[in-house]
Every structure is written in C-alpha cells, then in structure tokens.
Write a structure and sequence with these properties.
Distance between the termini: 47 Å
Order of helices and strands: HHHEEHHHHHH
Strand content: under 5%
CATH topology of the largest domain: Four Helix Bundle (Hemerythrin (Met), subunit A)
CATH architecture of the largest domain: Up-down Bundle
Mean pLDDT: 82
Shape: globular
Largest sheet: 2 strands, antiparallel
Number of strands: 2
Strand order of the largest sheet: 1-2
Number of domains: 2
Structural class: mainly alpha
CATH class of the largest domain: Mainly Alpha
Low-confidence stretches: 1-10
Length: 244
C-alpha cells in the first residue's frame, strides 16, 4: 500500500496521525489490519521513527489502534477500545498548553528517572549514555538534536521498567517536540549557551541514573524540566498557575 505523502508541517506527529486516521476512516486500513512498520512509515513520510511513534501514540490514545503482542499496532475493532487520555497538541500556540505539557512531564518524568536509576539494566543504561553522546556530538544540533533529545527521554522511560510510563512519555513527545523547537527558535544568537545548558542538564540526569542514585535522578530531571520551561518564559511553580 502507499499512503499519501504530506508536506513537511510544523506539527509532524499530529499531521501524520491525521493522515493515518484518514486511511482508517476511508477504509484503506480496516479493523484488525496491522499498521505498516515504523520503518516503512518513517520512509514514506520522510520523518524519523520517533515522529512515527508519537503519531501512533496519539492514535492509541484516540482509541483508533491497539497494541497486540507479536503484531505491534493494529486498527481497533468497533467496541474494542474507548477513547482514552487526550491532549490537543494543536493548541501549540496557546501559552497555557506549553505550561500544561511541562507540568505533566515534570510529574511523570521525575518518577521515570527515579525508577530508571533503581531498575534499569546494563543495556538500558548504555542506551541512555549513548543517546546523550550522540546528542552532544550532533553536527546539526538545532535539528538533529531535537530527535535525539526526545530519544534520550524515551530511553529513560524504557529504563523505568514501566511500559505505561513509556507510552505516556511517547505520547507527550508531540508536545515536547514543539517546546524544544520553540526554545531553539527563540534562542537566536544565544543558541550556543542554550546548547551548553541543555547538554549539562542532560549529563546530570545521565550521571545520576548510571550511578544508581534515584534522589539525584529526580533532582536532575526536576532542574532540567523547570529550566527548560523557564527558557520559554514559563514558571512551573508560580502560585497563580490555576488562574492563568
């Protein structure tokens, strides 16, 4: 099958999710059908596999696909699933949407880092370290570094040993991608300083997890997400957040 390609959009995961949704609604993908592989979809749309994972996570949350052991993602049958947790990623221009994504990330990712430090095996810790090194050494940091930044957080989620945390963080990366890109677009002439700060924060998270220090891992993740929000002008702990 050949799924219609799309122009390179600002919000890639949401656009790809919409394209796959049309395939389902128009009957080209039927209930019980297995979705094309991540590799095929990535090549078809000209994006990274991370972007495809984010799109599929959105479809799962919308109740359009389900995960099957040994099969991957398949189109849900009528009544097989109900619409689950959902964030409207198209609110990306709304300041409160960015703030809300950061706050939710903070709650989930601090605990994921804690669990990763306690539970991650040697392969998980190696993946976290290697992803950090690739991000540090990326020649096109403003572009390639975005995918690697997201992959770093997903590697921590996998090391947590909780597949629901991995699913949640994979879903949230749609919002994360927008915030990371927005940070780098706003950085302008100070992009070098932002890169240094960002890499230092990720290194602190990596070191704490590799050293099996859950408290330090939580603190490092707290500092990173709080600082990342601040770089976009958001104060996660301001007392008037409910009335913003």
């Amino acid at each position: 099958m050949r799924i219609n390609t799309l122009d390179r959009p600002v919000r890639l995961p949401a656009r790809i999710a919409d394209a796959l949704k049309r395939e389902i609604e128009e009957g080209r993908l039927k209930p019980g059908d297995r979705l094309p592989t991540e590799q095929y979809l990535a090549e078809n749309f000209g994006v990274s596999r991370n972007v495809v994972r984010e799109a599929i996570a959105q479809l799962r949350s919308a109740g359009l696909v389900v995960s099957r052991q040994g099969l991957g993602s398949v189109v849900a049958k009528t009544g097989e699933t109900e619409r689950g947790f959902h964030i409207d990623m198209e609110q990306g221009g709304d300041a409160s949407a960015f703030q809300n994504v950061y706050e939710l990330r903070l709650a989930i990712e601090m605990q994921a880092a804690d669990f990763a430090a306690r539970r991650g095996d040697a392969a998980h810790l190696k993946a976290i370290s290697e992803t950090y090194e690739r991000m540090r050494d990326a020649e096109r940091w403003e572009a390639e570094g975005v995918d690697l930044d997201i992959e770093f957080h997903l590697a921590i989620a996998r090391a947590s040993g909780n597949p629901l945390m991995e699913d949640a963080i994979s879903y949230l990366t749609g919002g994360m991608r927008q915030t990371i890109v927005a940070t780098r677009e706003r950085s302008g002439e100070v992009i070098g300083e932002v890169k240094r700060l960002t890499l230092d924060e990720h290194a602190a998270i990596r070191d704490a997890i590799v050293n099996r220090d859950p408290d330090a891992a939580r603190a490092a993740m707290l500092a990173h997400i709080t600082n990342a929000a601040h770089r976009l002008g958001y104060d996660i702990f301001r007392e008037d957040a409910a009335g913003r």
